[in-house]
Structures are given as C-alpha cells and as structure tokens.
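Example 3.2
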Amino acid sequence: MAKKMKQQTRQAQTMAAQDKPATLKDLLDPKVLEKLKAQANDMKQEEEARKAAKRKQEEEARQAEQKRRENDFEYLLNNTKQDWKQYK
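Structure, written as tokens:
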C-alpha cells in the first residue's frame, strides 16, 4: 500500500512538472543565455563606472568652489561668527 502511494506521488510530481509552461530560459540555447548574462554584467559595470566618474567630477567641482570661497574675503566675512568674546 505504501509503495502505491509513493508511486502515485511521484507520478503526480512528474505530471505537475510537465504541466508547467515552458519558460524563456528553457527555450534558449545555453550559449545564448551565457552571452546575455555576460552582456548584462558588462552593462552593469559600465553603469557603475559612469556613476563613479560623475561622483568624482561633482566632488572635484565642490572642492574647487570651496577653495574659491576660502579666497573670497567678502564670503568669509559674511559667514563667520561675530562672537569675538571667545578669542579673549
């Protein structure tokens, strides 16, 4: 009786696997799938490199602006605290 139940469950599992619709991954050739994955990885790396370059450029621009402001006496005068009692 137990053997019959095991056989029936196995048959049900195989039939359930056959009833599933075919996916694109199943239909594509493994070589094509590998090429697509490699292309996706390349695109991700290019995107990360582009973001890193943009971040670096923005940081350099920020530093250049800060350096320009530090040399501007009017900016320094307007943005410093006027509490001279601290320095007595």
